[in-house]
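Renewal narrative, Specific Aim 1. Our central claim is that a sequence can be written position by position from structural information alone. The example that follows is taken directly from our test logs and has not been curated for this report. It begins with the C-alpha cells describing the chain, in the order in which they were read.
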C-alpha cells in the first residue's frame, strides 16, 4: 500500500487543514475507487474560534453568490495533523489488503467560496457515503465518513478486459 503525505509549502492559517483520500482496490463492482474522507460533525465552539476573514477567499466565479457557510464547513470537515496521523495508522492497519493507497495533503488557502463541502452532498445513483464509524470494531475517537463517486471508476469487468 502506498502512503503519500504531502506537506504544505507554507504555514497554514489553521491546523484543521488536512484532506485525506483512500483508494479501495475493489468496491461495489468498481476498481480503484477513490474515497474522500471527512468529518461530518464538529465542535461549533472550535468553528467560532477561527478568524474566517483569514481563511476564506473570494468566490470561485465573480458572478456567483458567496456562500460562506459551505467554505466554513469545508474547513471544519477537514482533519488536524494529529487526526490525519490517527487516520493513516488506522486505515493502514485495518484495511491493509483492501487499499492501494492513502493520500493526505493540505487544502488550499484561502478557501474559495463556492466549493461544496462533502457533508452537503446528497447520495444518488453513483455517489454515496461510507459510514466508517458504523462498521464493527471502529476505534477512532472521532466520526469519519467517506464520499465516493462510482461514475469516475471503471467496472471491474471492463478494467480486466483492458
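The sequence written for that structure reads:
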Amino acid at each position: 500500500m502506498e502512503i503519500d503525505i504531502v506537506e504544505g509549502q507554507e504555514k497554514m492559517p489553521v491546523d484543521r487543514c488536512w484532506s485525506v483520500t483512500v483508494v479501495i482496490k475493489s468496491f461495489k463492482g468498481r476498481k480503484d475507487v477513490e474515497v474522500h474522507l471527512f468529518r461530518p460533525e464538529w465542535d461549533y465552539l472550535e468553528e467560532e474560534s477561527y478568524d474566517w476573514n483569514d481563511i476564506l477567499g473570494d468566490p470561485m466565479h465573480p458572478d456567483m453568490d458567496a456562500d460562506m457557510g459551505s467554505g466554513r464547513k469545508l474547513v471544519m470537515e477537514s482533519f488536524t495533523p494529529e487526526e490525519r496521523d490517527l487516520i493513516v495508522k488506522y486505515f493502514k492497519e485495518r484495511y491493509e489488503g483492501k487499499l492501494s493507497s492513502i493520500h493526505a495533503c493540505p487544502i488550499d488557502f484561502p478557501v474559495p467560496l463556492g466549493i461544496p463541502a462533502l457533508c452537503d452532498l446528497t447520495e444518488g445513483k453513483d455517489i454515496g457515503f461510507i459510514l466508517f464509524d458504523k462498521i464493527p470494531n471502529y476505534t477512532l475517537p472521532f466520526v469519519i465518513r467517506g464520499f465516493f463517486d462510482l461514475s469516475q471508476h471503471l467496472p471491474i469487468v471492463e478494467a480486466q478486459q483492458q
